[in-house]
């Protein structure tokens, strides 16, 4: 067990960070969370502030041993917000971080130069961190399921269980490797507390690898459903992305999500036998 640390955390209200905070509290670390909204969490000092406004959090950061930065804009029709929050505000936090403190950046497996505005903004923040801080770890989760939010893989799980006709984006080359939120928080805790702070970027994905239609079939089979799958060609997905940009809110996704979906992504082999599989998760849901 590592010595207790004073840890400053952004994005503390998310499902992922909620589980991580619980694990950190169990080891007696002092947690300070930044939130735009006023709320109370037992045993955690919550600061109500804005990541884009350093005056609301700078004083607390200066006295911390560790920064865990998870706050981000993930879905918006205004692409400038990705850059103002995910990049510009992250730069402010990195610049304010004491040189002796460790910096954990919760990024995404979708981060990349050609991964839509969201992925590009996360990639830019990663590059800035690498160039401007000596002690960092970048943790990049894959598709997360098992959280309270019914979106992404969670939405796909629901559709594959219940719908008889399911359209899906064809031609996605990078495999999906979903990870359960509990497994993710456990792996994140291990990297944050059990390492000697290398300059390192880490992909955190699940134990299985699926192409898009294969994931739908695996979920459907586990739940006893037999849907008819309709592939939507990439050119049609690109048209839909343009429609979403021109008419925000008319489609159930933002325009940059299409580029994010088709962008190449890294996947690593996970040999942890304790990690949950999609089959196990679906069986638990229908039990």
* Secondary-structure element order, N to C: EHEEHEHEHEEHEEHEHEHHH
The tally of helices reads 10
Within CATH, the superfamily of the largest domain carries the name NAD(P)-binding Rossmann-like Domain
Q: How many beta-strand segments?
A: 11
The percent range for helix content is: 25-40%
Radius of gyration: 19 Å
Strand order of the largest sheet: 3-2-1-4-5-6-10
The secondary structure category is: alpha/beta
Mean pLDDT across all amino acids: 92
Distance between the termini: 37 Å
Please summarize the sheet with the most strands: 7 strands, parallel
Q: Given this structure, which CATH class of the largest domain is correct?
A: Alpha Beta
| Percent of residues in beta strands | 15-25%
- The CATH architecture of the largest domain can be named as 3-Layer(aba) Sandwich
| Contiguous uncertain segments of 5+ residues | none
**Total domain units:** 2
CATH topology of the largest domain: Rossmann fold
Keywords:
two-stranded parallel ribbon; alpha/beta; 10 helices; Rossmann fold; seven-stranded parallel sheet; 287 residues
Structure described in brief:
The chain is an alpha/beta fold and 287 residues long. The protein has two domains: 6-145 and 179-204, NAD(P)-binding Rossmann-like Domain (Rossmann fold); 153-173 and 208-286. It has ten helices and eleven strands.
Describe, in plain words, how this protein is organized in 3D.
This protein has 287 residues and is of the alpha/beta class. It has helices at residues 15-25, 58-61, 80-96, 116-132, 153-162, 181-194, 212-223, 234-246, 256-262, 278-286; strands spanning 6-10, 30-35, 44-48, 66-69, 102-106, 136-141, 144-145, 165-169, 179-180, 200-204, 228-232. The protein has two domains: 6-145 and 179-204, NAD(P)-binding Rossmann-like Domain (Rossmann fold), CATH 3.40.50; 153-173 and 208-286. Helix content is 40%, strand content 17%. It has a seven-stranded parallel sheet with strand order 3-2-1-4-5-6-10, sandwiched between helices. It has a two-stranded parallel sheet with strand order 7-9. Helix 1 (15-25) packs across helix 6 (181-194), helix 3 (80-96) packs parallel to helix 4 (116-132) and helix 7 runs parallel beside helix 10 (278-286). The radius of gyration is 19 Å and the shape is globular. The two termini are 37 Å apart.
């Amino acid at each position: 067990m590592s010595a207790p640390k004073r840890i400053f955390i952004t994005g503390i209200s998310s499902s992922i960070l909620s589980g991580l905070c619980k694990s950190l509290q169990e080891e007696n670390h002092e947690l300070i969370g930044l939130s735009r909204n006023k709320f109370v969490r037992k045993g955690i000092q919550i600061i109500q502030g804005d990541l884009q406004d350093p005056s609301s959090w700078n004083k607390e950061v200066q006295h911390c041993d560790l920064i865990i930065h998870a706050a981000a804009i993930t879905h918006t029709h205004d692409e400038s917000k990705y850059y103002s929050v995910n990049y510009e505000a992250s730069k402010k936090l990195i610049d304010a971080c004491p040189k002796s403190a460790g910096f954990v950046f919760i990024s995404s497996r979708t981060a990349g130069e050609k991964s839509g505005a969201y992925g590009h903004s996360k990639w830019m923040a990663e590059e800035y961190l690498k160039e401007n801080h000596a002690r960092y770890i970048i943790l990049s989760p894959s598709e997360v399921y098992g959280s309270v939010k019914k979106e992404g893989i969670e939405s796909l799980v629901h559709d594959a269980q219940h719908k008889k006709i399911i359209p899906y984006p064809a031609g996605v080359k990078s495999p999906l490797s979903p990870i359960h939120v509990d497994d993710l928080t456990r792996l994140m805790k291990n990297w944050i507390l059990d390492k000697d702070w290398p300059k390192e970027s880490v992909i955190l994905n699940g134990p299985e690898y699926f192409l898009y239609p294969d994931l739908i079939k695996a979920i459907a089979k586990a739940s006893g459903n037999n849907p008819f799958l309709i592939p939507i060609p990439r050119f049609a997905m690109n048209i839909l992305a343009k429609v979403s940009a021109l008419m925000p809110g008319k489609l159930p996704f933002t325009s940059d999500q299409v580029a994010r979906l088709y962008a190449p992504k890294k996947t690593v082999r996970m040999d942890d036998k304790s990690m949950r599989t999609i089959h196990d998760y679906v069986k638990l849901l229908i039990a």
